[in-house]
Amino acid sequence: MSVRRLAEKQPESFEFTPENKAWAAKEIAKYPPGRQASAVISLLWRAQKQSGYWLSRPAIEKVAEMLDMPNIRVLEVATFYTMFNLEPVGRYYVQLCGTTPCMLCGSEDIKAVLRKRVGDEGHVTADGLFSWTEVECLGACCNAPMVQINDDYYEDLTPENFLRLLDDLAAGRPVKKGSQIGRVSSEPVGGLTSLTTLYGADGRGAKGSAPPPANDQTSAVAPTRDAHNDAKPRR
Ligand code: FES
Description:
Blueprint lengths: L17 H11 L11 H11 L6 H11 L3 H10 L11 E6 L2 H5 L2 H11 L12 E6 L11 E3 L2 E4 L3 H13 L6 E2 L16 H4 L25 H6 L5
Parallel strand pairs: 1-2, 4-5
Antiparallel strand pairs: 1-3, 3-4
The structure holds FE2/S2 (inorganic) cluster.
């Protein structure tokens, strides 16, 4: 793990908004007396979101004060978890997955787009709009390669559709979250390759549809009559 330090330039102070203060009080109340430190991650996360996705020293100290913890204990948490940014990030903070499935499906090409359009990893563009970092698997490997931008996933990326996505974000145009090639969730791109006798190649097999031809080899095990009648579309 790389060394994680607080940013050199720090704001003078940090205060939760009244709304976030009320939220924090409820969060702390979830734990028994004397165990309020258990709320440290959720309070740090809220502080980060309030501050444009990064944590300043005053924010860390404010959380420590609210939870009656030594500053160093909260600092340890903030510097340990990479979900906490210790330096300012762009308004659109891009987390690029570079783990094996995404790498095999082209994440290096997506990284090249980021380098060209945004700059080096960690750099914030002059207009404050973008910065990026490479992260480990974000759990959307089926739709690799992918990035997370703020709270949303963008999947099935190509250099072309990703560049267009960045341009649309920069221009304030609406963007599509999830798959950028139109597939629903993580369905197979070219239709089903298994269980087609139950669900049909388009995955929409209806109850009572005609049984598969006798020589249909697309399913390893032919469904029983009951299994066929009980089959329900999953969506
Ligand atoms: S490897 Fe990229 S989301 Fe899992």
